[in-house]
Input
Amino acid sequence: SNDLMKYLDTNSSILIDSGGQYKYGTTDVTRVWHFGKADPEFVDMYTRVLKGHIGLDEMIFPENTPGFALDIYARRWVWDAGKDYGHGTGHGVGAALNVHEGPFGISPRWANTETLKNGMVVSNEPGYYKDGEYGIRIENLLEIQLVKPEEENANGDNEADKKFLKFSKLTMIPIQKNLIDISFMTNRELDWLDEYHQEVFGKISPLLAEDSAAMAWLKKSCTPIER
Output
């Protein structure tokens, strides 16, 4: 809106949590943008949130795992700084129903023992919020999938036959690279970021006109990160 645009400048960040409901399902995504040079504290916390986001995204876990068992992987680096965020890390997403749909979730709510199952859609949205100054959240939607799809019809009644699950990314939007403290990231985390941006570009670029401003932005946003 025009009122919002009055407050956008190169000295502060903006957090945008957006989504929509379509015939094929519901979207929910959050990104943080900064149009100037962020201060070191912001960069540090942004990087911690991103590391947590990647940590959860890369998890492989056995079936029948409750969501709270994975929550620590998203909070690990924010906790390491003596900080926390006051919301759940992940919620179920309905197909044109409630964008926050239970009964499962990924959060510190230990009483919610609903397990994560193949085919569920869940958000991955760690964050950090400094009251009165800024907010950081990086949110993608993920589909829970079998690590080995050929095991879908196996009974998995004993330890040797236990099925394992992983997350597959559904959200295809770049993550701002110049807010990241590269020295704090591992090579594996940087590889994750480059691979994600390569996937984003591969799926989104065919939908854009080659000479459009959107294509120019996408190309810049999806280039490999400088190490």
In short: DSSP finds five helices and twelve strands in the chain.
